[in-house]
Amino acid sequence: MSLSNSGIDPSAGTEPTPAPPRMSPPPPPPAFQPAPVRPLPTRSADGAPPVAVPSPPNSLAGTKKLAAVVPSRSVGTVQPKQPQSGVGSATRGILWRGELAIEAEKVAGEGSVAEQGRELSVEKAAPPWLISLVIHLILLLVLALIVSPAGQRLTTVVLEMGQSPDQGDDLESFELSPSDPNIEDALEMESVDVAEAIVEMPQELFSPKSLIESLESVQPEIASVSIPVGGMMSGRLGTSKEALLAAYGGTGQTEEAVQMGLRWLAQQQEPSGSWSLRGKYTDGSFSENRIAATAMALLAFQGNGNTHLTGPYKDQVEKGVRWLVKEQDRAGYFCKNLPRHEKMYAQAQASIVICELYAMTKDSWLREPAQRALNFAAESQSNLGGWRYEPRQDADTSVTGWYVMTLQSGRAAELDYKEEALRKVSYYLDSVQHAEGAAYSYQAGGGPSPAMTAEGMLCRQYLGWKRSDPIMANCVNALVEQKNFNIDDQDTYYWYYATQVLHHYGGSPWRAWNEKMRVQLPAAQVTTGKEKGSWAPQGDRWGGQAGRLYTTCMSIFCLEVYYRHMPLYAIDVDEHLGG
Questions:
Q1: For residue range 455-484, what is the model confidence (pLDDT) as tens digits?
Q2: How many CB atoms lie within 10 A of CB 312?
Q3: What is d(CA 68, CA 149) in angstroms, rounded to the nearest whole number?
Q4: Which of 137, 448, 491, 548 has a 20 to 30 Å separation from 119 between CA atoms?
């Protein structure tokens, strides 16, 4: 969806852009330069792309190139490694090319009666002793099956694949376990309750200080991060949620505001299970986009720990996700019938919903639509390394940010994703960065803006930049010093990205932001009347066009930040808590 101001695309040359779509518009690029905090080191140009990626236009010299990343079953951020000559993608799993079937045919052919020229004399009637023997063998087999573990759930399936003597390949073994999502359907595993899928922290880890110390033990730095099983969404329930809320500065007021917002959203759901941007509420959008509206509402419910299996809003989530899945075609596309400027925003948001829900529950019926959505995300990436309004055409930072989170959600769900797609994003970001990566523009050649800077830096964080990088310090300090949270300067799109960047970074920049946000944002919520629990769109940079549901969902996302995604960086406990 277009985030251009006054209906004009910031990147447009001569072609006018229709009015911005109603979801997540990228703000036009006002002058924005991060204030230097320390001298910036010159970025090395090593780490050439491991795949052929055409150089984006207006690519800046001396920009940072991320090293190739390797896939990981852990669901943290992409882990960089040192470039090597002839870098290629690591192979996930072992591809079985059907050698067993081929060898079986060869053995059968070599041992056939016809080829050996043998003749057998066949008895027309079996002797009584043979019939008795067969019957007793059958009875013994039946008894063995009754007392054996056969029929119980398998714990390990081992396929041994070997070559015939005339082939020199070594014997290979491929071990699968029921926890492997690739064989869940074969084992007919039941849907897992989300409370069991989440790794709960022991009660002794409930205090903020002990929580952060436990996080440090598993993710000392982004380069070696390994988020525990349950992954980036594992903080949304139980003691984990309560501890994260306390550790990162949430309050009873922030959580009550979230609950009021969710109650308002539940009241707006249509009988079909979808939500509407125009709505039955006041101050809706000028145009309709049910895919985007439904995806945003579901993300708000899921961010608070609700799924279609558990939570006070499980019925709303189930109706909504079933409606959403019906809208997806075989290629994974939800939005082919939407207006051009709205397609890819809504597509990414719907994809995040399905991938998140599968990651949280591992419910097998969601695996196929989630994988289709993830495949579509990779296949729709343009040769510039990003995404824009149409699949494989052009790129802008606003749309690209949503697809980075789509790919990360797919990784969290342990789905098959294309590592190459994440590598390409880093080269796109190089083309729109300023101040060596401390600021970002909407498209190459444009000036940086706070919203695009926050979105670009969040992408960099998920792509593996370290917290110790002085360029990241430049960025977060500039965000707080030049455009700290201010309810009188309402821009929920900017707030959505800046809140995440600062939360992951932590320390004094996060405290400076959060001390204002946790007070001002709940205070701006409607607390009486028909629209109780929502946030009015008037005054928001894009709310007048996108409507009340948009500003409400984006505000809820901000107030769920304490536990919505696990923090990417471990930091000093005293620094984080302000001690």
A1: 999 999 999 999 999 999 999 999 999 999
A2: 14
A3: 46
A4: 137
Q: Which residues does residue 433 pair with via DSSP β-bridges, in sequence order? A: 440
CA dist 252 and 365 (Å) reads: 36
Nearest in space to 302 (alpha carbons), one of 290, 293, 314: 314
Distance CA 174, CA 346 (A): 39
Q: How far apart are CA 208 and CA 574, in angstroms?
A: 11
Distance between CA atoms of residues 573 and 579, nearest Å? 8
Which residues share a beta bridge with 440? 433
Helices assigned H by DSSP within 90-160: 99-110, 113-116, 128-147
| 416 to 44, 73, 106, 181, 355: CA distances (angstroms) | 32, 10, 34, 10, 11
Provide the CA 166 distance to its chain's centre, in angstroms: 47
Q: Dihedral sign, CA of 161, 162, 168, 170?
A: positive
Backbone angles phi, psi at 546, to 5 degrees: -85, -25
Angle at 512 between CA 439 and CA 406, to 5 degrees: 50
pLDDT confidence band for 41 (50 / 70 / 90): very low
State whether residue 367 is helix, strand or coil.
helix
Q: How many CA atoms lie within 13 A of 431 on its CB side?
A: 24
The stretch 140-160 carries a mean pLDDT of: 47
Mean pLDDT of 79-106: 35
Secondary structure element (H or E) that encloses residue 325, with its range: helix 314-326
CA dist 8 and 15 (Å) reads 9
**What integer is the mean pLDDT of 25-42?**
48
Q: Which of 5, 19, 17, 9 is nearest to 285 (CA)?
A: 19
CA–CA dist 296, 291 (Å, integer): 9
Residue 300 clears pLDDT 60, i.e. is over it: yes
**Angle between helix 290-303 and 548-559 (nearest 10):** 20
Contact assessment for residue 439 and residue 448, using Cβ atoms and an 8 Å cutoff: yes
- Express the helix, strand and coil content of the chain in percent, nearest 5 each: 50, 5, 50
* AA letter at 2: S
Banded model confidence at residue 133, pLDDT cuts 50, 70, 90: confident
Cβ-contact 28, 15 below 8 angstroms: no
- Cα–Cα distance, 316 to 330 (Å, whole number): 25
pTM of the entire predicted model: 0.65
Instruction: Say which residue the tokens 């979230």 belong to.
Output: 258
pLDDT at 397 over 70: yes
| pLDDT for position 571 | 64
- Mean pLDDT throughout 58-71? 33
* Cβ atoms < 10 Å from Cβ of 202: 9
Let me know: does 351 contact 329? Beta carbons within 8 Å.
no
For 562, the enclosing helix (H) or strand (E) is helix 561-564
Q: Specify which residues 141 forms β-bridges with.
A: none
- Contact by Cβ (8 Å): 1, 27: no
Checking if the pLDDT of 298 tops 70, the result is yes
Show the beta-strand stretches assigned E in 425-575.
433-434, 439-440
